[in-house]
Amino acid sequence: MPFGSVLGAIVFGILGPLLGLRWIGASSAPVKLMGACLGLFGVAVALGLLMKRSWARWLGVLAGVGFAWTAMNGFLVQGGVFNLTVVLAALAVAALLVVPATGRPVREQVAAPPAPSVVSRALLGASCLAIAGFLGATVWAVSRVSAPHDATTATAQPKSDSKDAAAQPLAKPEGPVTWHDFADGLKEAKSGRKLVVADFYATWCGPCKIMEKRTFRDARVLARLRDVVPVRVDSEETTPRGGLKGADLALKYAIEVYPTIVVVDGDGREVARNSGVMDPDEFLAWIDAIIERAGTAIARS
Question: What is the CATH T-level fold of the domain 182-294, as seen in this structure?
Answer without folding.
Answer: Glutaredoxin (3.40.30)
